User: Fold Putative transposase from Biostraticola tofi.
Amino acid sequence: MTWLAQRVRGRYFYLYLIEDIFSRKIVGYEVHEEENGEHAAALLHRTVLRERCYRQPLVLHADNGAPMKSRTLKAIREELNITGSHSRPRVSNDNPYVESLFRTLKYVPLWPSAGFVDLEEARQWVERFSRWYNEEHRHSAIGYVTPEQRHQGQDSSLLANRKAVYEAARKIRPKRWSKPLGRYIRFTAHIQII
Assistant:
């Protein structure tokens, strides 16, 4: 969860967000005026059903905020057979994946630095950001494919095609390539847990 500043100084909206760390895809998000465990639990439940990963071995890593440690969220986690994991107290980098995502969110050129006028504006902005991040943003940690491509398992063929293009270019002009091909292209494995 992260805070989204309102135009009124010292007031915030709260972005609840679930990221799949394998694909880096934003799989669930909601913006609310208050932070509480009921919002977090409802988002988790809807996301698990939408992603069709009910009763699969999942781990939910969260910070130590009250909503993330609430009894409501814990009950939903247990119902869905999700293992809970929490950051160490006062260690903000225990969840680098979502911290990196939140930095991207707050540093994109269209970030409303003056704050959001109202809840609806914040929700619409997060909707647009999520669509851009999942479907257009080429993520460096997953080989410069989009999180959606990785999530759908399309990354393997895209990376294989990219490798073929680089190898063909290297054969045409080998002197331009002073380093091994691995420097120019990264391959990632697609893992499926059954």
Observations:
- Confidence is low (pLDDT under 50) at residues 190-194.
- The domain at 2-142 is CATH 3.30.420.10 (Nucleotidyltransferase; domain 5).
